[in-house]
Design a protein that fits this description.
Blueprint (H helix, E strand, L loop, with lengths): L1 H22 L3 E6 L5 E6 L5 E7 L5 E9 L2 E9 L2 E9 L5 E8 L2 E2 L1 E6 L11 E7 L5 E7 L5 E6 L2 E5 L3 E3 L3 E8 L6 E10 L5 E8 L6 E4 L2 E9 L4 E12 L5 E14 L1
Parallel strand pairs: 14-21
Antiparallel strand pairs: 1-2, 2-3, 3-4, 4-5, 5-6, 6-7, 7-8, 7-9, 9-10, 10-11, 11-12, 13-15, 15-19, 16-17, 16-20, 18-19, 20-21
Length: 266
């Protein structure tokens, strides 16, 4: 009897989900998706779609997320294991993008962009502010623009760096990642130098700029340069990353630097 009852309940649940997905005017419906989970759709009393989200087998958000108002798309993004990931786009009621957020493991990272709303449909959209956040989600740069595209305020510098470890063994790669953003029409210089521990001897130097085509990788949330080195001998070394931001005329707006000390063990 218990086996039959359990089977009956499963059939009843599946039938109710199937009925909801086909006939529900308001409330929530569920449909199986190609990722092995379900697509959850929420409707208002008029039958308009309010939210469309993908869930995994544990009902945790996994995949596409979309939000609507009055049947018009207002927000789209994606989740990974229940955390916001990648680019999230926010739109107004006429379909113009008003904000772009970039997320990494539920933290806003890299470029964050806000736009002026257009007065006329023929007008080009213009950026009202541009922010940049490091991998901890802290804002390290922000620039504000007027409607003509001129800078009204600027603070910080749009770059950050991370590395795999500061203590490595001979033959084990040391990896350094410099991630940065570039607001509209801006230029930059990025110079990376390696010295011995007391900075008396230059070991290597590499420079990048807005005209660089190799070694600079495009990401969803900015640009990235990667340095990888395998040390053949033990010792102490220092890496310095210098970054400066310039306007379209080449005038320096801001500059900053970071240092990373590396110990190579036998």
């Amino acid at each position: 009897m218990m086996i039959k009852l359990t089977y009956f309940l499963q059939v009843l649940l599946y039938s109710s989900i199937l009925f909801c997905s086909c006939h529900y005017k308001s409330g929530t419906s569920y449909e199986k998706n190609t990722n092995g989970g379900v697509t959850k759709k929420t409707f208002d009393k008029s039958g308009n779609l309010v939210r469309n989200e993908e869930l995994n087998v544990d009902s945790v958000p996994e995949g596409i997320f979309k939000e609507y108002k009055g049947g018009i798309l207002r927000c789209s993004g994606q989740y990974k294991s229940g955390k916001k990931e990648g680019t999230w786009t926010y739109l107004n009621l006429i379909g113009d993008t008003i904000r772009i957020e970039n997320w990494f493991s539920d933290r806003r990272v890299g470029e964050q962009i806000w736009y002026y709303e257009r007065v006329k449909s023929a007008d080009a959209q213009k950026v009202s502010s541009y922010g940049f956040r490091d991998y901890d989600g802290e804002q390290v740069f922000v620039a504000f623009f007027d409607a003509s595209g001129q800078i009204t305020k600027i603070e910080g510098i749009p770059f950050t760096c991370i590395y795999n470890k500061s203590n490595v063994s001979i033959g084990i790669p040391f990896e350094l990642f410099i991630t940065f953003g570039l607001p509209q029409t801006f230029k930059y210089d990025c110079i990376i130098t390696e010295t011995d521990s007391d900075h008396s001897k230059n070991i290597s130097r590499v420079a990048y700029s807005d005209s660089s085509r190799s070694g600079v990788y495009e990401l969803d949330y900015g640009k990235r340069v990667k340095i990888e080195k395998i040390y053949p001998t033990a010792g102490k070394y220092s890496w310095k990353i210098f970054f400066q931001l310039k306007n379209s005329a080449g005038t320096i707006l801001n500059r900053d630097s970071m240092s990373v000390d590396v110990v190579v063990n036998k």
